[in-house]
Amino acid sequence: MPPPLSDIQIRSIREATARICCWHGSVRSGKPIASLLAFLLAVRRAPASGLILICGRSLQTIKRNVLEALADPALFGPVAAEVRHTRDATTAVILGRPPRWCERRSG
Known about the structure:
The chain has four helices and four strands; from the N terminus they run H-H-E-H-H-E-E-E. It is an alpha+beta fold.
């Protein structure tokens, strides 16, 4: 069973209504779980057409910090089964949608 959310996490998810949302605050305050849950809710509500974009420093950090966390049943319960990716592949499916990657380029 996933861990319960705090009142602050629930409020942050409820207030995450913009197209781009940023969480900030102290380390280990529950931001990753709240932001990933808000992301899942946004993917579920998104129109059938259009891009789902995940940006990160590298594809490896996206996989480690987003995809592996979303696919963890200890964190997201049965919804984790709706997140599929292969460790060495450059593709994934989240709630039936294939997201696109945006890596930060050095320069």
